[in-house]
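Lecture 7 notes: from sequence to structure.

We start with a single chain of 382 residues. Read the sequence below before looking at the structure.
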Amino acid sequence: MRKWIRAFMLFLMAAVLSAEALAQYTLTLDFQNMNPHLNQKFELRVVNKNTGLEVGRHTIDSLSTANFTMNMLVLVEGESYWIDFYADLNGNGQYDAPSTDHAWRMELNNAKSDTTLVFSHNVMFTDIQWPGDIDPYQFSGTWSGNWKNLTFQTTGPIAGTVTVDPDSMKISGEFKTTGAFGNPDTTVFAFEGKADTTSGDTLKVQLPAPWTGTINLFNGTISGTITDPNLFGTGLSMTFTGNFGLAQTIFRYQMSGTFQADGIVVMGHRDIPTGIASPVVESRPESFAILQNYPNPFNPETRIRIQLKQSARVSVQIYDLQGRLVRQYEPGSLKAGVYEIPWDARDSRGLAVPGGMYLAKVTLAPEGQNPITRTLKMLLLK
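Now the structure, written as tokens:
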């Protein structure tokens, strides 16, 4: 159920875009000769190389064919991407570094158009440092961006804040935009509601009155039709479809009713709470290091300090002594410097964990070098 909460959070946050251009393209992935992984779980995500943040994700619970394609509306003009994916070879339901599982990475630089990448099964594996599930409250925070009406060639900014309560499945927020429907004034949209999870595999999001209709979110895709029968006197409907990831969603919309138009919204979320604070020392360390958490023992918060000689991708997984994943952070690629990673003794649902010993697996992965990993013992006292 939690994965649908995550999906819900991402769409309603509406907003997104740091780039002024709204040119967006479809990424088509053509997989061939995947015979060794038939009936195995297959997961893929697209990561923006400049930010290190995820912009799209898709999971196939069991591969039923050796040749298949994926179409994802995730590319923004001028941006570069990693496409990371793996097959769950050992069948344990989660990612393990090669050769336990088979994992690969493709690259796409300077996106300029709809793009097709072809991949044929091979044994040139890459440890992609798969982050696992997404924490629901990573979607909380400030969002900002733009929309573009392609029919009338108008555009405008959109910005707001979102608060997520993963326990009650309640989300609330407020967004403001200017220029919508030709109105120069600021339009405010405030919302507060819950996700309806009674619809099976597809999450249906019910918007507050006077809106009717649903937003459907499933496995990285967004679709639906919503209507306000009284807006502008004669009503307005919007039908949309697109894709989402942790840090971005892009969808195309069609408006009917008072206004008839097509448009595009590109949304991003850079202010993701990843557990990485701002650099604590303005320096360039002479070596890489993963230091013991402090305080230790701790209650209620502890911090892990890392030193980066050069830029590196950073990931943290926290486990209990039974080997269960409790919490994870994936700040992506960080520049050289000294950082602190805080843990507030909560799991991925935001619930406080019981006292006891926990293990933090910290990995630093400089480009072109072997990853550096250390496992820390952390004692939570209660």
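The mean pLDDT is 82. Keep this in mind for problem set 3.
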